[in-house]
């Protein structure tokens, strides 16, 4: 299924989008990757959604990526005797490990690991930052705080601790069980929540054992500080602006988003911009102008993908939300300013043979009016490098690995096609020509650029480029061997 845009759309599935008809309509409307949120839904429900996605993929002969988003550790206060209390600015409030129900002066915080690292002056944010506490004094089992922003605090509200690196693994026991379940199920990407350090990513990779690519969600200040190490350890990144906007001043988030996108592009690793992109469409068939501008900004910045959360999972207008994203993306990418911005931010420092090959492929394609860049890739590396160039012509990624093709569904501009096993470059050129014609990227009279790594099936060997006719008879005539 050919898209008329390069940025990809990720749609979260949930109660509003769990049957075959809806999932198929979402894909036809523009969803390239489906997100399974492990914070909601049983394993049986997740399994059924996975089955339906693969059925839609087969029925439409269209490669679809699946991303399983692990919940991550959840920090919450305990329960209150009255269910809730009203905290006033300037009052004292205590957090401790005592089991007694909470009241207006204190509540249980059943996470001793937090008390281990708290220091006077540290901030604690409750209920998505609606209530803010500042630590006055603390010990191994308590923190006496001053309420700096008051409000209603109620049972088991979430707690954010932005000022310290918590001695918590990114994977809870539930996450480990979920990871094993979805990796065996056959998802393509694993998203890790509340990553703080590269070691969190490395632990998930050991558990995944190559069954899925690892995507790190950047939603804590510690992750922003350690981003270079986290990016190196990850296969992809999600700029998760929800918790990031809670734990940091909201005005800090846009420049952070821009910096992270550029670093991901330089590393040739896909990046998703997520959270509240079309939030009003949970209840309205039309977005706000500010939301449309937010989506457009992420596209102008060069992100690989933009994501819908509750809009498609639980909203009243999931198809309209995907359609809106698709329409905004097409309009932005047809704007000459978009091309100027993308090309101005292109990486010019070429360090390897592969870098030179894909840069040459782009330049040839754009100067010689070639119709498409076709890259044969076993691991996905060649396609990722071509996508980093952000060429003006379509990218066809051909692979004998269906898992590679599905993972590339998250990558900017790539149309993924599965092929048989190849052992000769000429066979890759022939397959590329057939695919380009089948998908209406080219006719038999047009030219394509083909890149690959020889020997085949060896990761990171992008070393060959050919400009070829899009007619296999001419390919054989010019290269009879």
Automatic annotation (TrEMBL):
Pathway the protein takes part in: Carbohydrate degradation; glycolysis; pyruvate from D-glyceraldehyde 3-phosphate: step 5/5
Key word Magnesium present: yes
InterPro entries in the record: Pyr_Knase, Pyrv/PenolPyrv_kinase-like_dom, Pyrv_kinase-like_dom_sf, Pyrv_Knase-like_insert_dom_sf, Pyrv_Knase_brl, Pyrv_Knase_C, Pyrv_Knase_C_sf, Pyrv_Knase_insert_dom_sf
Enzyme class, spelled out: transferase
MF GO annotations: ATP binding; kinase activity; magnesium ion binding; potassium ion binding; pyruvate kinase activity
Gene3D superfamilies according to UniProt: Phosphoenolpyruvate-binding domains, PK beta-barrel domain-like, Pyruvate kinase, C-terminal domain
SUPFAM superfamilies documented for this protein: Phosphoenolpyruvate/pyruvate domain, PK beta-barrel domain-like, PK C-terminal domain-like
Pyruvate kinase barrel domain span: 4-322
EC numbers for this chain: 2.7.1.40
Cited Pfam families: PK (PF00224), PK_C (PF02887)
Pyruvate kinase C-terminal domain sequence ranges: 356-467
Catalytic activity: pyruvate + ATP = phosphoenolpyruvate + ADP + H(+)
Keywords recorded for this protein, A-Z: ATP-binding, Glycolysis, Kinase, Magnesium, Metal-binding, Nucleotide-binding, Pyruvate, Transferase
Keyword Nucleus: no
Family: Belongs to the pyruvate kinase family.
Protein name from the UniProt record: Pyruvate kinase
Native species: Roseivivax halotolerans
């Amino acid at each position: 299924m050919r898209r008329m845009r390069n940025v990809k759309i990720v749609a979260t599935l949930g109660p509003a989008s769990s049957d075959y008809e809806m999932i198929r309509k979402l894909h036809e409307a523009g969803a390239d990757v489906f997100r399974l949120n492990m914070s909601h839904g049983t394993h049986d429900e997740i399994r059924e959604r996975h089955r339906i996605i693969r059925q839609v993929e087969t029925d439409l002969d269209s490669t679809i990526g699946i991303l399983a988003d692990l919940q991550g550790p959840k920090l919450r206060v305990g329960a209150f005797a009255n269910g809730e209390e009203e905290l006033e600015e300037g009052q004292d409030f205590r957090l401790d490990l005592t089991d007694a129900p909470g009241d207006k002066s204190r509540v249980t915080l059943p996470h001793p690991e937090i008390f281990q690292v708290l220091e006077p002056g540290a901030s604690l944010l409750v209920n998505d930052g609606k209530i803010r506490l500042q630590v006055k004094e603390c010990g191994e089992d308590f923190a006496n705080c001053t309420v700096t922003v008051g409000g209603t605090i109620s049972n088991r509200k979430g707690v954010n601790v932005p000022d310290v690196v918590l001695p918590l693994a990114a994977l809870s026991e539930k996450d480990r069980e979920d990871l094993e379940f979805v990796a065996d199920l056959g998802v393509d990407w694993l998203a890790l929540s509340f990553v703080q350090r590269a070691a969190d990513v490395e632990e998930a990779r050991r558990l995944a054992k190559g069954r899925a690519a690892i995507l790190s969600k950047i939603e804590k200040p510690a992750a922003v500080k350690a981003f270079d190490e986290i990016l190196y350890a990850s296969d992809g990144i999600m700029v998760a602006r929800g918790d990031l906007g809670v734990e940091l001043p909201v005005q800090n988030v846009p420049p952070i988003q821009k910096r992270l996108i550029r670093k991901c592009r330089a590393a040739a690793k896909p990046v998703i911009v997520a959270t509240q992109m079309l939030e009003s469409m949970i209840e309205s068939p039309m977005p706000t102008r500010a939301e449309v501008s937010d989506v457009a900004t992420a596209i102008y910045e060069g992100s690989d993908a933009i994501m819908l959360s509750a809009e498609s999972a639980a909203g009243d207008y999931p198809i309209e939300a995907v359609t809106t994203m698709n329409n905004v993306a097409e309009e932005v990418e047809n704007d000459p300013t978009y091309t100027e911005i993308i090309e101005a931010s292109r990486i010019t420092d070429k360090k390897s043979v592969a870098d030179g090959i894909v840069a040459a492929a782009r330049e040839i394609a754009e100067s010689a009016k070639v119709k498409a860049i076709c890259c044969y890739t076993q691991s996905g590396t060649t396609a990722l490098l071509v996508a980093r160039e952000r060429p003006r012509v379509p990218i066809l990624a051909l692979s004998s690995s269906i898992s590679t093709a599905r993972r590339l569904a998250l990558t900017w501009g790539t149309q993924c096609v599965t092929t048989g096993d190849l052992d000769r470059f000429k066979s890759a050129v022939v397959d590329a020509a057939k695919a380009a014609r089948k998908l209406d990227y080219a006719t038999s009279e047009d030219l394509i650029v083909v890149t690959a790594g020889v020997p085949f099936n060896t990761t990171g060997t992008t070393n060959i480029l050919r400009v070829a006719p899009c007619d296999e008879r001419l390919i054989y005539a010019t290269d009879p061997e």
